[in-house]
Structure formats: C-alpha cells, structure tokens
Write a structure and sequence with these properties.
Length: about 110
C-alpha cells in the first residue's frame, strides 16, 4: 500500500512540473532577452544595451522594469521592443524575478510579485 502511494505521489509530482524543465523566468530570458542582454547578463553591445551582470538598470524599481519590458524603450541608440504582444503580465514578472535573482547582486530592490 505504501509503495503504491509513493508511486502515485511521484507520478502526480512529475505531472505537476512545468514542461520547460526549469524556472519560467529563465526560460523567458533565454528565449527573448539574451540576444541583446547576453546569456550571462553582459550585453552584446556594451554602453548601448544594459548589462544586468554589471547591475545596469537594476537600481530601478520593479514597476519601472515592468513598464520598460511591457512598453519598450526608446534607448539612447537602439530601442527595446515592447513585449506586451508576446508575453503575459505574469511572464514579465517572472523574467524580472529571474533577472533580479541571477544578476541582482547590485540591485537594491527584490521582485515582489
């Protein structure tokens, strides 16, 4: 009986894990963000695109990061596209949490959503 319960718990647990196999925010970052901001957080075009690994832009409150991702930015040289047509609000918060957790050692605020 115990063996059957353990197998059932394992089966249910496996089914409850997301298909992407990891953190949703990481998955989103590696799909949409890394081409410009770098897989390791170092921007592909330094001094033009923020390098999260250097803490650039991470001093901003989460709501400002959300606004920039959702609506895009003009940028000094290159604009960042708006992602509101491709990502849900929850996905934007997930990527903010990932960026803060991965590159946020320089930041002063943690993602709270």
């Amino acid at each position: 009986m115990l063996k059957r319960l353990l197998l059932m718990a394992l089966f249910v647990g496996i089914l409850s894990f997301p298909a992407y196999g990891g953190d949703a925010g990481e998955d989103i970052y590696k799909t949409y963000c890394w081409n410009c901001h770098g897989i390791d957080g170092f921007a592909e075009i330094p001094d033009v695109i923020p390098s999260f690994a250097k803490g650039e832009r991470l001093y901003k409150p989460d709501v400002m990061l959300f606004y920039s991702i959702w609506n895009g930015t003009k940028g000094r040289v290159l604009p960042m596209p708006a992602w509101k047509d491709r990502l849900s609000e929850e996905e934007v918060w997930q990527v903010i949490r990932y960026i803060r957790a991965t590159f946020g050692r320089h930041s002063t605020q943690e993602a709270v959503r």
